[in-house]
Design a protein that fits this description.
Number of strands: 19
Shape: globular
Distance between the termini: 21 Å
Structural class: alpha/beta
CATH architecture of the largest domain: 2-Layer Sandwich
Length: 488
């Protein structure tokens, strides 16, 4: 997405650092009540896990170097257009963290949630705090890699502080330690009702009460840039780092271009986050049994959702096929998959067996065999299985969300990378029996920029008004149940 340049609110522009589990980007955002919000991609870079010291970790030094490189490029572009970057917002994936000592130094390279170490901690954590009690306070979906299980695997926490990944990046930019609330709500140590840390859980697990820095809300200022960052990027010293929905899904949901109240959303990327937006958490035993999560959204909303498998399955298959010498472009793969008949084999796309990398096509075929079916050894058949399985998972999750909340969803919004996948969008409309509206692709960065722009006074209003700005500047595609999908 790009924009024409001009003097928007005195030349104020906003830098969005938006990092997912497989790639990251630095974007410049421009917003105004009259023209809406637009983005310019400045710098894209890969992200991924590395094997180090017997575990799967993030190459965090390289990641932060890319952030600085992107911010320097953004500063140059803005200056060349007579603009100034008023603030920086940071969003990433959830649950992972870095441990800092009292001097602010990382004691080790941050682990990835894909590492297996946290699985062994689940029983220990549940022995201290039963799952029913955990859910009644945090409302958090059980995932073995949630932050509390990862922290339980640490050999030592005394004298250390955990900064979630976007907060760690903000610290390295400003020297200020804070924990942004939407991401805090994914840790399993956050009270879903009070919006504060669940101190009794920290005590029960033997974690220091100050294991996390103080909370900060989207729209509040973390701090201004350190001199070393100013020198490396060329940004002005008074450039602020502003807290946004630092859990990338929180930013993405803030930018869902919904005009209806009774909508559902699917933030479709490496993972799929499928749910509805509520004013208060649902902490019932039925909700826990269905494994739904209550995470904070922008403006105090609740993102009531369930993690479903995502396009990680597809990207990992492509990686495996490329290593074997087969590198057919994705549009051709999807077209071949769309030509296959409906009713083929499916898998449980969010089975933990698919969390780790490597040999994804083989693991998918093995999962199909376990159902008593057979999946042909052809890429198109594997891709169709993934797409059918994701759509079916979306439909089951949305039906459960309607049942548990008493809502009757009228339309499904798909945002993120999956909104470009026409086969997935059409299959979702067919599986749910509801219209699907696809777009925007860069919802996360749009939500990031809009929270910054509102904090700066460039735009005003609540989520409804912010979403109107997104809808005004986005080409949306509507899919109806039973439509025939044209060629990709």
């Amino acid at each position: 997405m790009s924009t024409s340049f001009g003097d928007v609110d005195g030349g104020k522009v906003f830098a969005a650092v938006d990092i997912g589990a497989s790639s990251g980007r630095v974007m410049l955002g421009r917003a105004s009540p009259s023209t809406g919000v637009t983005l310019e991609t400045i710098h894209r870079f890969p992200n991924g896990v590395i094997e180090l010291d017997g575990g799967l970790r993030w190459d965090f030094d390289a990641l932060f170097a890319e952030v600085l490189k992107g911010l320097a490029a953004a500063a140059s572009v803005a200056a060349g257009n007579g603009e100034r970057i008023a603030s920086i917002g940071i969003d990433t994936w959830a649950v992972d963290y870095g441990l800092l000592d009292s001097e602010g130094k990382l004691v080790s390279v941050p682990y990835s949630y894909r590492d297996e170490r946290s699985r062994m901690m689940v029983e220990r954590v549940h022995a201290a705090i039963p799952p029913e009690r955990l859910y009644a306070t945090t409302g958090l979906q059980f995932l073995h890699f949630n932050t509390l299980y990862q922290l339980a695997a640490e050999p030592e926490l005394n004298g250390l502080q955990a900064l979630l990944i976007p907060d760690l990046i903000a610290f390295l930019l400003t020297g200020e330690r804070r924990t942004e609330a939407t991401n805090a709500s994914t840790t399993g140590l956050f009270d879903a009702v009070s919006g504060k840390w669940a101190l009794d859980f920290l005590d029960a697990l033997g974690f220091p009460r100050n294991i996390f820095p103080p909370l900060i809300q989207p729209g509040e200022t973390v701090g201004t840039l350190l001199p070393s960052v100013v020198q490396r990027t060329g940004l002005l010293a008074d450039t602020e780092v502003v807290a946004v929905g630092s859990h990338d899904t929180a930013s993405a949901v803030a930018a869902v271009p919904a005009s209806e109240r009774e909508f559902a959303y699917i933030s479709s990327g490496t993972w799929s986050l499928v749910g509805v937006e509520l004013d208060a958490p649902v902490l019932s035993e039925a909700s826990r049994t269905a494994n739904f999560t209550n995470e904070r959204g922008v403006d105090g909303t609740i993102r009531y959702l369930r993690n479903v498998g995502g396009l990680w399955l597809l990207s990992e298959c492509q990686r495996s096929w490329a290593a074997q010498g087969f590198s057919q472009a994705l549009p051709a793969l999807l077209e071949a998959a769309a030509a296959l008949p409906a009713g083929g084999p499916q898998i449980n796309a969010d089975d933990p067996a698919f969390t780790a990398p490597d040999n994804m096509p083989d693991r998918i075929r093995a999962a199909v065999r376990n159902t008593g079916d057979v999946l042909p050894d052809r890429p198109a058949a594997v891709v169709r299985c993934i797409m059918d399985s994701l759509a079916a998972g979306y439909a089951r999750t949305l039906a459960d969300a309607e049942r548990l909340t008493g809502r009757d969803v009228g339309v499904v919004h798909i945002v993120g990378g999956g909104s470009q996948n026409r086969l997935l969008c059409q299959l979702t409309a067919d599986a749910t029996g509801k219209p699907v509206i696809a777009g925007p692709v860069e919802a996360t960065a749009l939500g990031n920029v809009l929270v910054q722009a509102r904090a700066a006074g460039v735009v005003t209003g609540g989520l409804a008004e912010l979403r109107e700005l997104v809808a005004a500047g986005t080409e949306l595609v509507r899919y109806e149940h039973g439509e025939i999908l044209a060629a990709q």
